[in-house]
């Protein structure tokens, strides 16, 4: 495995991606990581990431210099290279000319890091500091017009530095450079696959959980579903999944889930039908934050009560993913695992004093999908668009009632089918319907109608932090509108949401 020390650059997740795509396992650690922990990880190499600081600033992040005595190859990128130069006796200064964006790279040594790389290529720079003097034993191996030491090497100790960012797409041979580091320099094997990850995780979970009991809140979303199937393979019936039907789910969602998980995966699931409790708590409530808080509170109460019925539980499983954890690792502090504030069971571990098991916490979303596939889960389960914990309640503007839920459910089901039939489901980050708290006048046959309005929301996005409204073809939108108005009683108007995030959000509440 490879250890990546995170000095706070925005591209760090990309370094991890490149390494993993090369089938080598890696883990990102903060600079405060102890040398003993690094030794325990037994890495075949270390990558020091870039970062926003200058090495000569007083509180610039530093990792234990014991890493240079471990006898493993080290690659420093940008700030990581400056840290290495500074720690080993070189010097770094503010560059005469700062360099941002594309630069022409001239390679002077075609071994090791630059094996198979053209003599001249482009690279992506983003730095205000440069190396003035290299430490003893180092030599420059590439340059750009503004940066004489764009790359350096100490071929005795196998320490390398790159001033530019090989992990971004704008450095066309960057992946090759990283792979040269992994395979020619560190001599890693391409052994990290989802199959190996699954096998290792299953045996780890067996060791940790053993014959104890573990519980999991199953929502039917990708993360909790994959977590459940994985843990089930490790501890079988000692895993109890708790599925709470809050009455705010899509049409037939709970039944479908029952069939899939109980029949196909033989999971031990406790189904709690709690729709009336949620609806009662939501009665008369229209303010979005209040709805969210009520749903969160009722969920935790029910989950807790259900969990107490299971005797001797020691562990709580959660489907936390790597981006949630990386976001909370600060270059200047230690890693603190923050659970997203809207996470359904966020308040549980503390309250219930259970030990957390988070088998996906080192995986990215697409890796979770690949893992699901390896575990035999079908496409339909793995490729689900995100569905918020508070469910349809935050897509019904105004009061949530049985009647309004029924209308939205029918519209949502019809929309989903159309989106899937026309091949848009995977292309869109999310696509859903919103029931507005307004009525409008229409005419059906010869009759005047005064009915509900539905808004359609369809967005593209990479990570939900930003999103763009989807430019769905007019004809397709027209068809959806026709079908909804004709087939769902109580709706006489459909509008399409053409706002992006920011300034709007994806959900309406
Ligand atoms: P917004 O509306 O903030 O949503 O642009 C961003 C993403 O988060 C999802 N979302 C939630 N997911 N519990 C969840 O599990 C929630 O309370 C929640 N609220 C929003 C939303 O669907 C979108 O993908």
Compact overview of the structure:
With 509 residues, the protein is α/β, with parallel strands linked by helices. It has helices at 12-21, 35-41, 79-87, 174-185, 194-209, 222-235, 253-264, 275-282, 288-308, 322-326, 348-352, 365-374, 379-382, 402-421, 474-487, and strands spanning 2-5, 26-29, 45-48, 74-77, 91-107, 120-133, 139-143, 151-154, 159-162, 213-217, 239-245, 269-273, 313-317, 355-357, 430-444, 447-460, 468-469, 491-496.
Strand and helix map with partners:
Elements: E1 2-5, H1 12-21, E2 26-29, H2 35-41, E3 45-48, E4 74-77, H3 79-87, E5 91-107, E6 120-133, E7 139-143, E8 151-154, E9 159-162, H4 174-185, H5 194-209, E10 213-217, H6 222-235, E11 239-245, H7 253-264, E12 269-273, H8 275-282, H9 288-308, E13 313-317, H10 322-326, H11 348-352, E14 355-357, H12 365-374, H13 379-382, H14 402-421, E15 430-444, E16 447-460, E17 468-469, H15 474-487, E18 491-496
Parallel strand pairs: 1-2, 1-3, 3-4, 4-9, 10-11, 10-13, 11-12, 13-14, 16-18
Antiparallel strand pairs: 5-6, 5-7, 7-8, 8-9, 15-16, 16-17
Helix pairs in contact: 5-6, 5-12, 6-12, 8-9
Xanthosine-5'-monophosphate binds at residues 342, 386, 388-390, 430, 464, 501, 505-507.
